[in-house]
Structures
1.
Amino acid sequence: MSETGLEKVSSNKTFDGDLIKYKFKSAALGGLDANFNLYLPPQASSGKVPILVYLAGLTCTEDNGAQKGAFFAAASAQGIALLFPDTSPRGAGIEGEDDDWDFGTGAGFYLNASNPKYAKHYNMLTHVTLELPQVIETAGLPIDFKRQSIFGHSMGGHGALTLYLSSPTKQYRSASAFAPISNPTKCPWGEKAFKGYLQGGVEEAAAQYDATELIAKVKEPVHILIDYGTGDNFYKQGQLLPENFLKAARDAGHDELQVRVRSQEGYDHSYYFISTFASDHIHFHANLLKQ
Amino acid sequence: MSETGLEKVSSNKTFDGDLIKYKFKSAALGGLDANFNLYLPPQASSGKVPILVYLAGLTCTEDNGAQKGAFFAAASAQGIALLFPDTSPRGAGIEGEDDDWDFGTGAGFYLNASNPKYAKHYNMLTHVTLELPQVIETAGLPIDFKRQSIFGHSMGGHGALTLYLSSPTKQYRSASAFAPISNPTKCPWGEKAFKGYLQGGVEEAAAQYDATELIAKVKEPVHILIDYGTGDNFYKQGQLLPENFLKAARDAGHDELQVRVRSQEGYDHSYYFISTFASDHIHFHANLLKQ
């Protein structure tokens, strides 16, 4: 363990770079051990590189995107680091936390809980936006956090869009998402999560945690790419609602140079879909990260 | 279920093609249910395509290569189908079959067992070389089995090399392998497997199931590519022995146009290694499959 408290768990060489798993005691998550994966492309051996944060979906860990996303070929070629956080605190010991697959463990929704029952541990927003950059910088790893972008899948797509759109400091240069939960105050997954984590429930969420609500209020130019599949059962069930996001974006004056929402014929919600468009998304961000 | 007994379990669109999981009652595996994954590239919708068989390693199923191999981008671009068999029969109910991770379930070694205890079920050689092509052809799927090649990882690399080198009918045009068990009669994994599955033990194996023994006797030109990582712990432990295979190949007159064995600095035994060189291997086979 280094002085920063960062412990290297494992390291795998891939596409000429290194995928490293770290563990540390996370203050944001109430002192629990937290894992993350960091991919350093070969260019990181000769200087600081920009970073793209990948937020995974419900039930996932820091490993799913790394193992199945097929992100490394393009990240290596473009010289971009990838950060894979976990999706929730682990082992908080809160009653009921492990009862459902779409709430609690594996389902942190990238927010800071205001319900006292969860407020000590469920602070994935702070964990992703503040704590991880700080821990990584303190450890002296060769990342240039002034060049950050963010993307994600499903719940992680919700996370990527909302963290991008709500950051007062413009922390991220761009956001993209695979099959994101785009209007969570209007779908069962979001309603359940917000009622549980937030004292003010769905109403509290609208102001900060709903991409469709947020894009309606943003005046500045944005850089957003979204893909979803027409064969995605969660899309068909109304959990994703990308059309709502698109309409709100257009209504607010964000044209297709700023917000692209692509419907991909026949693709589903799996990593087989994500990996197909992985390279597209990396290149979308690379254009902005390499400026 | 179709008349051939082939049941479609699931289907995922990926890289413009379809990854389909099938189930059927396998005669070769003693009547047990067997699963396999078949990737049909987009070109399969307008005619028969060549096929590349991927054999996975110890503890794996038909899913590991499909989920983590990053094979589909190149297979889609090249118009090559991919077949992912399982690594052993499942649920044969033989005493001791599930005791170890490197023998029995998940560890079929791509041979036909001659030990009566295993001979009814453990016939992965017949399953891969005869039964799966027959089942797929009978179902009318658009595969041209006159254009077949084979590759694999670790135990599956052993399988790919031995099935390629021992086929009297030249069933496969080429073979490649990631970190293959290259001389199994000389390493602990192979010795254990052969003593268990074969009445004649290691001695019986030398004639048919050891790539290093086989390449020494092959006179015809061959097409073989092997990659292994210098950071691979199983390589360091002497389970893989690629140098033995290389020496036997050169001694038998197979030059580097016929047999390439590449040592990859710092890579390990994982799918992070495999995915890095996945595209290389697909293109190696494509050159021969598309003739």
2.
Amino acid sequence: MSSQRHWVSPPASLLQPLSVPDRLLLGPGPSNSPPRVLSAGSRQLIGHLHKELIQIMDDIKGGIQYIFQTQNPLTLAISGTGHCAMEAAFLNLVEQGDKVLAAVNGIWGERATDIASRLGAEVHQLVKAPGEYFTLEEIERGLMQHSPFLFFITHGESSTGVVQPLDGLGDLCHRYDCLLLVDAVASLGGTPILMDQQGIDILYSGSQKVLSAPPGASPISFSNRARKKIHTRKTKPISFYLDMEELSAYWGCDGNPRKQNYAHHIKVIKVHNIFGLEISWKLHKENSLYLCAGLQKLGLKLFVKEPDARLPTVNTIFVPEGYDWKEITEYIMKNHEIEVSGGLGPSAGKVLRIGLMGYNSTKPNVDRVLHAIGEALQHCLKNKL
Amino acid sequence: MSSQRHWVSPPASLLQPLSVPDRLLLGPGPSNSPPRVLSAGSRQLIGHLHKELIQIMDDIKGGIQYIFQTQNPLTLAISGTGHCAMEAAFLNLVEQGDKVLAAVNGIWGERATDIASRLGAEVHQLVKAPGEYFTLEEIERGLMQHSPFLFFITHGESSTGVVQPLDGLGDLCHRYDCLLLVDAVASLGGTPILMDQQGIDILYSGSQKVLSAPPGASPISFSNRARKKIHTRKTKPISFYLDMEELSAYWGCDGNPRKQNYAHHIKVIKVHNIFGLEISWKLHKENSLYLCAGLQKLGLKLFVKEPDARLPTVNTIFVPEGYDWKEITEYIMKNHEIEVSGGLGPSAGKVLRIGLMGYNSTKPNVDRVLHAIGEALQHCLKNKL
């Protein structure tokens, strides 16, 4: 090599072994992974077209159909995070000028608005205060007023800790010739959602929340009604990477032989699901109730008023008066190696968020975090006497 | 739960432990990962805003700057595969009606054309036969004829096994007020590329090739010239997930305090790089020469005529007369647990591709695959007497 070259040196830190602290992740995600998932992460790779991987993809599809409670053939995992699945949902459905209605009661409705707008949709918002959910009547008024072809709503609003009731919503949307798109990133597996029965047309989630796997493979499913809209598009989706016609051919969702020359790589993750959905929902509910009772015993006030509207996977409390939320979370991280989060978007500065997701939703973890929060409340009071 | 519900059952296979064969991946990627990388894959997760992760991100950035040989501040890893990085490059730069010139001598120029067209660009192609590369004169004629703002070219054409010379290309493009975008998915780390010195404006790669890590984190870098185009866009990029202004804020590339409420998750991968770039380039070259000599000794004909134009990471040979390529690859997979690939796109049916990437580029692996190919040639001849 010529000595005239100005070499950029490698950072010395790359020669050091990777060191990562062992931490209990009780924020709104990621959650910790169980040993079975972690050990799968250390397996050697196989090719993206090997028959064993095709089998694993079929298993993943079946696992997603189970956890979504759907029989939709177009069900697969996106090679990206939950955000990426959100974009995949919009960009396969939306064409320039299409009307979209987004329910906004926290950050995810705002994000959906941003994404759909970038794609050229005419986006209208149905707005409620952070901490509240939408009634069927309110949604019907929005559908009547705006005649959208697509309605977006968040099942588990992780910025506020609200769970959105979904019963009857699919039928309502379909009466107005509208597709129902639901974000279940923070809720899937932790609280009931029944895609086919509730008439949800597009449903997606992430892997690093209740599923307790690393981020990077995100479940998504499309009803036949949604597929029809995709098939009858006038323009190609603006992404090849997330084009459902391409992905569907690779995942064998369209009844044709798999497209073999599709150079898409997927990361293999097996959804951990030992106990079954109903038990998972029950455990998440019980542990959330146990946490909320403990928080109230410490004198803390829950952010979501109605008990039934409380998301069991992300529990929100008001930042108590006389405290700085950041001091509390930093105290707990520093002294207990536990992640607890502040708010996000409209709840920033107002709330603390305690996640109990998947592998992390256990009674011992609740005890640990309650102990840590109690201690933080003693140490972090401002203007102590 | 009500008994009226039609439950979708979990697939029985999900209750089985994951079983993956141990296979030598000598196709065009993915390659096998070394133990150090695999063991990092079994680490517990940490939060996407924890200070340890911020440090790891800075290390990753430094590692990419080293392997790209660039000092660009806007250097980071995309949460997706190489395809996703390709889209990130185009969608941050291209606006409706922008003129793009794509060099097409294999599948990747076609893919670039597809992606840029979806984004509304006016795409022109500069075409050569698969197996050939482009000269500066040919490219200059294309720039003169079409006046594009962006020129796309593939450094390592993995569908044909050609390495594209890059010296002088940046200067040429800049004389025509054009940005230079280079795909180095199949070449990075295996053959020299010097981003700053060669005047490359946008460079990206994947993690599952020479870097020998799992797919899902893809290096990308933008020159200040490219950043300027991004900053002066009239419209927002159509993706939030891949919006470089957002990613740059999260990765701390813009000189401002990091954007803390950015809910993007990244997968931690430490680029393995023990020996240094020059030794890596040298080893890839030596092992490729050793393989090519062995293939010729078996009577096989190399697809790329000029020795200097042969990509050391993906080696291509003509399918020998009297053979079906698929029988050869299946024989080798079945009897030797080695992946060797057929062609892709324009080379489909015509060539066999043998990848020697990163951790897999070793003399013992070459011996193993030569032995397997020799045996396959004896067993797979059609119409045997």
